[in-house]
């Protein structure tokens, strides 16, 4: 598989995952605001959760969308270039 093609597909997958994770963060924030806080036992080994900032998540979603489109354009260009080379050699 061509390196540019592989890189573009990896970039598309990465952007999709970033968008999915950011959307999940927003959904979790909305869900946590609707329910009453419940007392949790204290645990020394508990990893502190990152505070979700909706503004940062919107920026992350826009960034992921731009990365997705950019990688899609690279993929389209690579496919068009390969097609043109095949036409020349045929």
In short:
The protein is mainly α and 90 residues long.
How would you portray this structure in words?
The chain has helices at 3-34, 54-89. By secondary structure, it is mainly α. The longest helix is centred in the last third of the chain and has 36 residues, at 54-89. The radius of gyration is 21 Å and the shape is rod-shaped.
List the helices and strands and how they pair.
Elements lengths: L2 H32 L19 H36 L1
Oligomer, anyone?
single chain
Helix content bin: over 70%
Output the helix-strand order. HH
* Helix count, DSSP H or I runs of 4 or more residues: 2
**Biggest sheet features:** none
Q: Could you name the ranges where pLDDT drops below 50 across 5 or more consecutive residues?
A: 34-39
Beta-strand proportion: under 5%
Distance between the termini: 21 Å
Average of per-residue pLDDT values: 81
* Alpha-beta classification: mainly alpha
Could you give the count of β-strands?
0
Judging from the principal axes of the Cα atoms, what is the shape? rod-shaped
Radius of gyration: 21 Å
Quick tags:
rod-shaped; 76% helix; 90 residues; mainly alpha
